[in-house]
Write a structure and sequence with these properties.
Order of helices and strands: EHEHEHHEHHEEEHEEEEH
Number of strands: 11
Radius of gyration: 19 Å
Helix content: 25-40%
Number of helices: 8
Distance between the termini: 14 Å
CATH architecture: 3-Layer(aba) Sandwich
CATH topology: Rossmann fold
Structural class: alpha/beta
Length: 251
């Protein structure tokens, strides 16, 4: 099952994803493992009951980068200079490919957290490997091919039961009718609007009335949410422990 959990920052998405069955491989692009080990519910109990069974794969960049505000995109292009801030991204892409290929059926859940940071990594690697100073319009077609023809099909083909991807919300305005639209963050806004269609489940995670919850139906400005299962429109608390009650009814 390919699941996309989308929401604003600080709504508990990482912790919720970490409640899925173990053994789990957790691709950590944001450095969120501290919250996973320490998050507690209102009664003071740890939300992730078996965090010690998670294998964290660190996908964050560690080295210190030199900040140079003098170099502009036009300067880099005229001098033929690759953007120096990108040279740490390409090795992480190689690591991502290697770790995905190594996943076996001994893993029950794979988590990607977060797509927002992963797409930023993709762009930096793309700039560095192609030695260009900025993403061009035609380059987004290449990124779209990587996303929808390579990466997501690879996630669907993994020999595990659950693949949970965490993402943030993007926002745009429909200039024709003037309505505000919310959707998952993608390499571009156009890809973000399409992203939900590639997943089995798209859940909006939010805090409503002081409680954390998953919304499994489109609501308000967020039209991407949707479930192919016979699940209720809202699940709270947003954990696999609660979700499992409804999955058992499906069987």
């Amino acid at each position: 099952m390919l699941i996309l959990i989308v929401g604003e920052s600080m709504t508990g998405k990482s912790v919720s994803a970490a409640t899925f069955p173990k053994p789990m491989k957790y691709f950590d692009f944001d450095g969120n493992r501290i919250s996973i080990f320490n998050a507690k519910d209102k009664d003071g109990n740890l939300i992730v009951k078996d965090a010690d069974e998670i294998e964290f794969i660190n996908m964050t960049r560690k080295e210190i980068q030199k900040i140079d505000l003098r170099a502009t995109a036009s300067d880099a292009k005229s001098k033929g200079l690759p953007p120096t801030y990108s040279d740490s991204a390409a090795p992480l892409i190689d690591k991502l490919n290697k770790e995905i290929l190594a996943i076996t059926n001994q893993t029950i859940t794979v988590v990607m957290d977060s797509f927002t940071s992963m797409f930023r990594l993709w762009k930096d690697a793309f700039l560095f490997l192609n030695k260009i100073p900025q993403i061009r319009i035609q380059d987004y077609q290449s990124l779209e091919g990587v996303l929808f023809s390579q990466f997501i099909p690879s996630l669907k083909a993994l020999p595990c039961q659950y693949v949970v991807c965490v993402d943030h919300t993007d926002i745009d305005k429909d200039e024709i009718v003037g309505t505000i639209l919310e959707f998952p963050v993608g390499p571009s806004r156009n890809m973000g609007r399409q992203l939900g269609k590639a997943f089995d489940e798209v859940w909006l995670q939010r805090i409503h009335g002081g409680e954390y919850e998953w919304k499994l139906r489109a609501e308000g400005f967020f039209g991407s949410a949707g479930s192919r299962l016979h699940l209720p429109p809202t699940i709270k608390p947003p954990t696999f422990y609660e979700l499992e009650k409804y999955l058992k009814k499906e069987q």
